[in-house]
Amino acid sequence: MKMNTLPDAMIPLEKLLQVLMAFMKDGYFAFTKKDSVLKRNSEIYKDFCTQIGKYFIIDNMIKLYFVFYKAEIEKKESGDKRTPIPYYVLGYLGKTVSDKNIKSINDTLSNIFKTKEDFLEVYDFCKTLSTFYRKEYFDKYKLDYNIMIKRDIDYEVINKMKDMVLLLKNGSKLKLLFGNQFTV
To answer: Structural domain tally of the chain?
Structure first.
């Protein structure tokens, strides 16, 4: 990533809030509620955006934004130009972190981001899950990508795909992190 101009180095507040919403809630929620994140009278603004400091340290906010950014770049470079689905990648990551009995989200994120290898293993899992979800969703419902992203995420499909991806990846760190906790 090259940062040649000031906008290249800036993180838009609205996009950052969407990224954090995708992590805390899910990708569909972040995608469909983006117009409410900066509206002072909205429920999302009052209940979520003003409370961000309770959930995240700044370092982890920036790292989550770069997870989104990495997925966006890979999506643009992919053959289908649609996968991985960045907000879904963050949502899957958030589901795994929030379902664990660990004292805080920040401790878990700090563990994930501790080494490049750990991060890439977790990221690759979430990215692959996003791609498999899109394919399985189409097979199940015969609905185009543009319709799929405007609908609630089908967690039955996700859980089916999660087990398949875990078997495919066979990573011991993934099993420790994800195990069977990734359910809704």
So the answer is: 1
The Cα–Cα gap between 133 and 148 comes to 10
Q: How many CB atoms lie within 10 A of CB 149?
A: 18
**What pTM value is reported for the model?**
0.86
Q: Give Cβ neighbours of residue 27 (< 8 Å, ≥ 6 apart).
A: 85, 86, 87, 88, 89, 90, 91, 92, 153
Task: Give pLDDT < 70 ranges for the chain.
Answer: 1-3, 98-103, 170-184
Can you tell me the distance from the alpha carbon of 11 to that of 30, in angstroms, rounded to the nearest whole number?
17
Domain holding 95, by residue range, is: 12-178
Q: For residue 51, what is the DSSP state?
A: G
pLDDT, residue 165, reads 83
